[in-house]
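Dear Dr. L.,

I hope this message finds you well. Following up on our conversation about the binding site, I have prepared a predicted three-dimensional model of the protein together with zinc ion. For your records, I am including the exact sequence and ligand specification that went into the calculation, followed by the structure tokens. Please feel free to forward this to your student if that is useful.
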Amino acid sequence: MTDDSLRGTPNRVAKMFVKEIFGGLHPDRKPKASTFDNKYKYNEMLVEKNITVYSTCEHHLLPIVGRAHIAYISNGTVVGLSKMNRIVDYYAKRPQVQERLTIQIVKELQKVLGTDDVACVIDAKHLCVNSRGIRDIESSTVTAEFGGKFKNEKTRLEFLDYIKLDTKF
Ligand SMILES: Nc1nc2c(ncn2[C@@H]2O[C@H](COP(=O)(O)OP(=O)(O)OP(=O)(O)O)[C@@H](O)[C@H]2O)c(=O)[nH]1
Ligand SMILES: [Zn+2]
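The resulting structure of the complex is given below.
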């Protein structure tokens, strides 16, 4: 390899996959989710929406790009807002299928918050569907996991109303 723009490519690509694209395979990178007492006595739903998702489909190793929306109802513990974005990013940064990613996010937050009352919806484009194969540029995939009180229709609809799935990305 004599071209100086290509010389660094093997190392650059290896570093990118290990440290960035698949960085979430390293358990040391799992975010420490700081929690607080719910001193404010805020007892309604909290929604962190439009969280950017960059992941990689495990079948084709092509990008999955979209948005995650998370909701929880505190039973005494509150989590720092940015930690929800960090948890999404950690589980996204590995070879994934969207269904598993959605469930992993909910399970992690249920553990951190000590409650089942957590939900996550992801709307994402899979480049393996958009840019190759069937090459359908418009389609996106929606997955959802509803824990605890979110299995109740009224609570679920409140969450879905807050996020109104019209996100363009
Ligand atoms: N359920 C699920 N399927 C996914 C996800 N990401 C990609 N896929 C699908 O995984 C499937 C792999 O199917 P294969 O038939 O082995 O692969 P392929 O021959 O390249 O299929 P085409 O994409 O239809 O050309 C494809 O249908 C992808 O659309 C995901 O997150 N969840
Ligand atoms: Zn794929």
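In brief: Strands lie at 35-37, 45-57, 63-73, 77-79, 95-96, 118-126, 141-146.

With kind regards,
A. P.
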